Fold each of these.
Amino acid sequence: MASTDEQPFILIAEDEPNIASFAKMYLEAAGFRVEVAERGDDALASIEEERPDLLLLDLNLPGVDGFEVTRRIRQGGGAMPILMLTARDDAVDKVVGLELGADDYVTKPFDPRELVARVRAVLRRADAPAEALDADVPPVLEVDDLRIEVGPREVFVKGDEVALTPKEFDLLTALVQARGLVLSREQLLEKVWGYTFLGDSRTIDVHVRQLRRKLGGACPIETVWGTGYKVPARR
Ligand code: CA
């Protein structure tokens, strides 16, 4: 956020007027400044011009769809938080959206209190990404062929940079920092996403899978069945 005395600005990209105005009403009541774009191309133009603090994004949009909107934001290196709006039974959409770099999703029809709580959590985390890290993190973390430069948020495998989304970076860093310890999905949600109340762990699992795909054999994350994930202790 630009400054603390400014209202955070949320862009809603949603072509269903009822859903857009319902979300807008509750978010405004919660103290946010809100605009609605009914098309994906309009949303991209607004993002370029107005730099919203958070994008609430329907996937099935006219013009440019939500997947493409997400891809373009992340390709340009944008770290703006993206919360997808998805239909309850669209498991594939959720996974694809997360893989493209959305931070998380909210299922329609949503409880407005949950929406506001999620938006607040995502903004809090985006405003202070360092909170996901312990106070005394060394500036560089290394595990075998993997090197994490914490300040510039860059990750290298054998010297080659690997492009990670903001959440992939935070998740990897949290696990590497906790080296040798198992972190449960709940602990990771709290550490990286700022949620403490969420029952759905698909978001975490998709991000871990993406890290494994992007880092290949250099990915140090192990699944601990029934518990969570860990990076093994130094040998
Ligand atoms: Ca739609």
Note: The two ends are 41 Å apart (CA to CA).
Amino acid sequence: DRLNLGVGAYRTEAGAPWVLPVVREAEARLLASGVDKEYLPIDGLAAFNDATARLLLGDASPALAGGRVATIQGLSGTGSLRLGAAFIAKFLPPGTTVYCSDPTWGNHFNIFGDAGLGTKRYRYFDPATIGLDFEGLMADLGAAPPGSVIVLHGCAHNPTGVDPSREQWGAIADLCASRGLIPFFDVAYQGFASGDLDADAWAPRFFAHEKGLELLVAQSYSKNLGLYGERVGALNFVLADPATAGRVLSQAKRIARALYSNPPAHGARIVAAVVGDPALFGQWKVEMATMAGRIKAVRTRLAAELAAAAPGRDWGFVTRQIGMLSFTGLTPPQVARMTAVHHVYMTGDGRISLAGLSEAKAPYLAAAMADVIKEA
Ligand code: IK2
């Protein structure tokens, strides 16, 4: 009955990793076409960069039409964030601080810290409601010095699964505009969170198009296309004018040249093949919706099982949260008991990956959670 809910990677209902059939098909086509193993250009595969920027900003993006976007292929989400961090460290004024949500994906602090940048936290999660501490967030960002960089999770916040509402996003965007803060979106779950590529890119599109903000966006294809080990992603800069976009791309390439010379080709070719072919693109959307749908079904089942096993508590947060991760609100001693007694493995902060759970095992997890809550 033991459960590994620590790893943030998709698993099937049977608990196995899943190579998307659309990826297998794209790879078969690539192999048949006899692609070579030559280096890519420093900024990556042109067809990939075009596809990834359009996926992010939409086909009708005024920023893309205006030539105001600089896109460089990166080493998945992590490497794209790291490239952006290096750019900030090199070109923004010394002492520029990067604000990350409290809590955030732990690697954010490594990424920005290793680039030599100072980091601070802004309030995000309210343990009392297992929801967003919106007032704390606005107060902390409102106190950030102008020119600070604000890391925002585009959708499916890791680790909490708690996202701002569209109205709240609007207020955050207005604050960034009025205070001169620079948004840096981390988009690691586009299409994987809700099953809809456009819905999951709403926030960065809104900031860029409706509010006219300059911003950075790191993208990852680890989750939505299941390309974890291929390391495919991108860093996008949305800028005020095409001349700036040209200069920024040129400087980003200089940084990439020194860090890793040029990015890996295989995963980028898969993305370009899938997005560039209407049939494969349609198939990807179906397969993405399958993953998102399974996780939603697991959430629904777990919430029902928890309500039955521990009826004294409000378990509504399980279905309110989005994406594959859920902050359970379990304390460190409760997490320790989950592992020691029930063999349920999760991160020490009480985060579980619902991708590692099946509907069949939801009753076991609910019973274990009910037990540790009772004990504490
Ligand atoms: N940014 C965020 C917010 C992420 O969640 C991830 C992926 N994290 O992996 C899941 C986990 O927490 O166990 C990334 C960036 C980086 O993804 P990539 O694998 O594309 O570098």
Note: Residues 7-8, 76-78, 105, 153, 158, 186, 188, 220, 222, 233 surround IK2 (CB under 6 Å).
